[in-house]
uracil phosphoribosyltransferase
Amino acid sequence: MISIDAYLEKNVHVLPQTGQLRAMHTIVRNRDTSREDFVFYSERIIRLLVEAGLDLLPFTPLDVTTSVGATYHGLAFAGNLVGVPIIRAGESMEAGLRALVRGVRIGKVLIQRDKTTKQPKLYYANLPRDIASRHVLLLDPMLATGGTANAAIQVLVDRGVPEENIVFITFITVPEGIEAVCSRFPRVRIVTSAIEERLNDDAYMLPGVGDFGDRFFGTEK
């Protein structure tokens, strides 16, 4: 059994398991839930995840004068932010980021498993030219084996993005995926709404939600 205790809080940030979150997860996980409800409640959880991810970014002190002439010693949001969904499932999280960060830049990466080598392979990347100087929210709803996540993170690192500037936001994950990412990229932080029990023999998470991308985009077979 994989132990992830060393990564919790330091590398992995799990949303507070409130009654409201668990109720939304119950709807999303139910195989009989309609696509309309799956999308609605998934998007609610995604917004919570993005908020948590944004809270890990740096802030700068900023004093403002209030309406009564007093000074409020506040903070300013970090600039130079880019969201990078991993095509296709990661694009389900893009709207949640756009809703919370007006005018945010969006890059894209497409990574799929090579049929011959069975290893993740980069097929497409479109990223801002100055991404090395930006903080990156990497978006993908499922962190299972960690192969795709690690390949995407490597693309960012190869483009000059420091590991500590990458926050990986994922809907659900498993200990196997956490171990795979955190052992290879120990300064990358992960934000998730749930840590599942394990992977089954087909690399599906248990209890899981099924294929997130298919359920979200309505392409279930």
